Amino acid sequence: MDQPAFVDALGGIFEHSPWVAERAFPDRPFANVPALHAAMVAAVDRASEPEKLALLRAHPELAGKAAVRRELTVDSSNEQSGAGLTQCSPEEFALLTDLNRRYHAKFGFPFILAVKGHDRASVIREFARRVEQDRVAEFAECLAQIARITRFRLEALVTG
User: Fold this and answer.
1) Residue 148 and residue 11: Cα distance in Å, rounded?
2) CA-CA-CA-CA torsion sign (123, 69, 142, 45)
3) Comparing C-alpha atoms, which of 74, 68, 83 is closest to residue 116?
4) pTM of the model
5) Out of 16, 37, 59, 118, which one is annotated catalytic?
6) What mean pLDDT, rounded, does the chain reach?
7) Are 15 and 156 in contact (CB under 8 A)?
8) DSSP helix/strand/coil, 84
9) What is the dihedral of CA 30, 35, 36, 39, to 10 degrees?
C-alpha cells in the first residue's frame, strides 16, 4: 500500500489519531500483525508528551457523555458494550459518572482501560483503584492500556 491507503486502512486503530499510522508507515514492510502493532506503538513512544496527551484525550470516557449521546466510534461502542457498560444500573451509571469526573479532575485525561475480558463490576473496581494513583503512573498505565486496545483492534481488523 502507499501511505494514503495505509493511513486510510489503519488510521482508526488509535482513537482519532491517524498520525500513529502515518509515522509507522516508514517502518514497513511488516512481517506480521505483531510487527505492525509494535511499529505503531513505537511511533507513540517516539511522540512528544503533548502528542501523547492528545492521544489520551482522544479517548472517550467509559459510560460517559459520548456513549449516552451515541457519539462513540464503532470500535469504542463495541468495546464498551462488550463489557456491559451499556447496561449499567442507575447506581452503576452514577458511580461511573462520579469516577469519570474525579479522574478527569485529577489527571486531565479520561480513564482508559482495555475492557475486553472485563465486566461492569471489574471495570468499576479497576477505575476506583486507578483514580488513587499518581499522574505519572497513570499516564504510563493509560498508554499501556491503549497498546492493549489497539492490539485487539488490529487483530480484529486483520482477521475480520
Assistant:
1) 16
2) positive
3) 83
4) 0.89
5) 59
6) 90
7) no
8) coil
9) -110
* Grid cell for residue 16: 482519532
**How is residue 36 written as a grid cell?**
505492525
46, 23 Cβ separation under 8 angstroms: yes
Residue at grid coordinates 505519572? 136
Query: Alpha helices of the chain — where are they, by DSSP H?
Result: 3-10, 19-24, 33-45, 49-57, 65-68, 74-82, 90-107, 120-130, 135-159
Residue with cell 462520579: 98
- Report the C-alpha gap between 78 and 97 in whole angstroms: 20
Mark residue 14 as left, alpha or beta (left: phi above 0; alpha: psi -120 to 50; beta: remaining): beta
Residue 72 sits at the vertex; the CA angle it makes with 134 and 65, to the nearest 5 degrees, is 65
Distance CA 92, CA 81 (A): 14
Rounded CA separation 153/75 (Å): 8
What span, in angstroms and rounded, lies between the C-alpha atoms of 90 and 4?
Answer: 44
User: Can 59 be counted among the known catalytic residues?
Assistant: yes
Could you say which residues of the chain have pLDDT below 70?
63-72, 76-77, 80, 82-83, 160
What are the structural domains of the chain? Answer: 3-159 (1.10.3330.10)
Radius of gyration of the chain (CA): 16
